From TrEMBL:
UniProt keyword Transferase present: yes
GO biological process: tRNA methylation
Organism (species): Thermoproteota archaeon
A UniProt-annotated Pfam family: Methyltrn_RNA_2
Gene Ontology MF: a single term: tRNA methyltransferase activity
Keywords, ordered alphabetically: Cytoplasm, Methyltransferase, S-adenosyl-L-methionine, Transferase
Lineage: Archaea, Thermoproteota
Protein name (database record): tRNA (pseudouridine(54)-N(1))-methyltransferase
Length: 173
């Protein structure tokens, strides 16, 4: 199971930067005309709310930015009154304690770093953390994670997740 995580802020919901978050979800979950059944995508807002997209059980999720934005807003609104809420089949919002959540992930665990790290063979089972804007300052949360780097230029998470999926599909990562 490929697990992609994006640590971000809920303040981006009302800004143009939301496109990076919605494209991250689409890039992680979608093939040209189908869903990736072997992928789970986690959007973690403010280190306390997680919206989970499970490829194997996801239904009725349209890949356009406006629909995804509606799902994210709905998840953030519903979770205020509950610990967990189902938004759509395969899409769940959950309150979390980010330290416990990240420490309990199955290995191998990686985080994207534009400054250091190496490119490793990922295989089909891994957890990969991205941050938007950046996560290098969250060292305490990522102590059990291996830094991972792709290329020499810094890319946005929505671009990176597509590159990683394509390279894994081709057997290059």
């Amino acid at each position: 199971m490929r697990r992609f995580f994006l640590l971000t802020s809920s303040k981006f919901i009302n800004y143009d930067e939301i496109g990076i978050i919605t494209r991250f979800i689409v890039g992680a979950m979608m093939l040209s005309h189908n869903l990736r059944k072997d992928v789970c995508t986690y959007i973690i807002f403010d280190n306390k709310v997680c919206i989970i997209f499970e490829g194997k059980s996801m239904k009725n999720v349209r890949p356009d930015e406006k629909s995804i934005l509606g799902i994210l807003k709905s998840g953030l609104l519903r979770i205020d009154s509950k610990k967990e809420s189902r938004i759509l089949p395969g899409v769940i919002a959950r309150k979390i304690i980010v330290e416990d959540f990240l420490n309990n992930l199955p290995s191998p665990k990686f985080f994207y770093s534009s400054t250091h790290g190496k490119t490793e063979k990922l295989g089909e089972n891994f957890s990969m953390i991205f941050g938007y804007p950046k996560i290098e300052n969250l060292c305490i949360l990522l102590k059990n994670f291996v830094p991972f780097k792709i290329g020499k230029t810094d890319l946005y998470p929505d671009q990176l997740v597509v590159i990683i999926n394509n390279k894994i599909d081709k057997g290059e990562l």
